[in-house]
Amino acid sequence: MMYTVKMYIRESKTRNKKTGKIYIKHTLVESIRTERGPRQRHVMTLGQLTLDRSLWKSLAFALESYLNGEQELKHLDLSDLPKELIEEITFQRAAINSKQEKCDELKKSESINNEPEKLLQEIDVNSLKVTENRSLGAELVANNAWELLDFESILRDCGFNDKEIALAASVIWGRLINPGSDIATWRWLREKSSISDFFKADISRVHKDKIYKISDKLLKHKSTLESKLYQRQKDLFSKKDTIFLFDLTNFYFEGKAENNELAYRGKSKEKRSQNCLVSLALIVDENGFPVRSEVFEGNVSEPQTLEKILDECGLLDAKDELQFRPVLAMDRGIATKENIEFMRKNGFPFTVIERADKTKEFRNEFKSLDGFAQIKDSNNQVIHLKQIDNKILCMSESRAKKEQAMLDKKIEKASKQLDSIVKSVARWHSADKKNQTEISQKSKKKRLTTSEKLHESLGKVMKSCSNFNKHFEYDFDQENGVFSYKVNENNDTAKLCGAYVIEFDQVKGSAEDIWRLYMTLNNVENAFRSMKSDLGTRPVFHHGAERTKAHLFLSILAYHMLRNIEYRLAEQGDSMRWSSIKDILSTHQRTRLSWNDAQGTTWFKYLSANPEVKHREIYYKLSVKNKLNDYIHKA
After folding, report:
1. Sign of CA dihedral 517, 348, 555, 151
2. 540: which DSSP letter?
3. Neighbours of 217 (CB within 10 A)
4. What is the C-alpha to C-alpha distance for residues 218 and 225, in angstroms, rounded to an integer?
5. Are 546 and 167 in contact (CB under 8 A)?
6. For residue 113, is pLDDT > 60?
7. 182-228, pLDDT tens digit by residue?
8. Is 46 helix (H, G, I), strand (E, B) or coil?
9. Which of 287, 293, 373, 282 is nearest to 331 (CA)?
């Protein structure tokens, strides 16, 4: 039968410049008349069709008729249609219905508690099918945090439209729920997640390049997003600024990253010094909420980052107008003498452990513990504290046991190596005597003396055992070829295990108050741990500096949501980490049911599974509700 088709299917190809791989997609296009002549209008994306090209015209006609309101294919003889064409028509019509029903539900804005109208029908039980299983539990919790942090309004103020907001959510939620590369996020969005059901704009079939572009756009608004999100966290929990915790970590690259101006080799905190690194400086408050972040080269010196990030936070130029003066806390990696003087000069209260080891200055106090007060930490471990001027002397019993065990292990390892040298020296000395009387005429190679061999082997042991000369005493009788050693029992290092000195300035309170204030520094370490493990920030695969910054910034945005979730749970007395929450909620899913009624019409229903007890416990504590309306429609 002849029929007129105004719509047709267009095939487009894109090539990956790096891999050379070609990607194919198909689009339903309508030809329309305008004042400037015929033009083509994009109607809908069809994905990648596997249909034979000869069937494209029939598919375009069927979809055009359906979009124009014709539910039945009156102009096509169904008995003559190939099975694969009927299946493709059914699938594409279901996609149209899904989007239309979703828009209708949003317009109605029906309450979640409204009872749906009863729909009774006779169905063919054998035709029941379950398709398109999608994760739902973690998305519900993410959406709850997203709304509490008012992400949509913040992004809209930055000029994001509906589709860009949905795309921004996809990359941020993706980093939170399914951490990985940008291409992994794209696949998660299309194949595994129900996230597209939470937004007005349809992002279920978005092209992968959109994922990269939206990350770049988020980075352009970094300063605004960080400041507004932190202010929102403070408003939610009625927190006042009291202490800022500052630290620096690094992430390693996979590959050479030759053209990345941020990629340098340095001291890796993950023992990956063979890889190029990029550094991230982060300020969080005492509750672990991110305040400001900054990306630096992989080989940046930690002390150099303090002034720049404080300037980025606006704490230097506007210091006279600030209504509060936050206490700065940082570990010994950044607390150099110069940085301490810098904080004093700029009037910042601080509490730090200086990079230079101050414990030896107070060795007598630590040995006797006279005048020390005893307190207990969060793990019920005993801490001894004593204040002397602007310093707090601290002795942790649990830390002492740990450091002593590490020291014993180091000494034991070095002792075994020294025992081996003792035996070798005797053997080398005997060989030297023999060589003096029987010089080989065949070999002209220079032979090392016993003394030279000893210094070479001893140098290797010293390199592997820090502070070797403090732990060991040794002697070498060169004439008789005897090497001996003993462990130094008067070593201060062993006697000062568990001891450290906190220095402070302009901080009021008792020794215990200042100690507890400093120990909140664990929150910034927890932030780095979450970004590296829970949010999958490492390794970094990007070859460009700006794309690397965007990758790290996505983790900061995702960490805002993660910390919001964990903090609210902690207020309920639940210390569960996000990784455990996500694992529990992974079994709460959304699916699509299909069946045929008595007349042979195919129906679909998008259905959220009823949450189990373990799911409901988390939802209850976080006040999470399922706002997705399940709906039913014909194919």
Report:
1. positive
2. B
3. 16
4. 8
5. no
6. no
7. 888 899 998 899 998 888 888 888 888 888 899 999 999 999 999 99
8. strand
9. 282
SS3 state at 15: strand
Q: Could you give the CA distance from residue 501 to residue 362 in angstroms, rounded to a whole number? A: 9
DSSP output for 583-619:
HHHTT-EEEEEEEEETTS-EEEEEEEPPP-HHHHHHH
| Residue 273 CB coordination number (10 Å) | 14
Q: Where do the domains of the chain lie?
A: 1-82, 358-433+450-506
Q: Could you give the angle at the alpha carbon of 400 between the alpha carbons of 500 and 383, nearest 5°? A: 65
- Tell me the C-alpha distance between 52 and 85, whole Å: 9
Residue 307 identity: E
Q: Are 562 and 535 in contact (CB under 8 A)?
A: yes
The token pair that represents 629 in the structure block: 């309306």
Q: How far apart are CA 454 and CA 251, in angstroms?
A: 40
Contacts of 87 by beta carbon, 8 Å cutoff, 6+ apart? none
3-state secondary structure 66-109: HHCCCCCCCCCCHHHCCHHHHHHHHHHHHHHHHHHHHHHHHHHC
Task: Please state the pTM of the whole predicted model.
Answer: 0.69
Q: How much of the chain is in helix, strand and coil states, percent to nearest 5?
A: 45, 20, 35
Q: What is the largest CA-CA distance in the chain?
A: 111
Mean pLDDT of the chain: 81
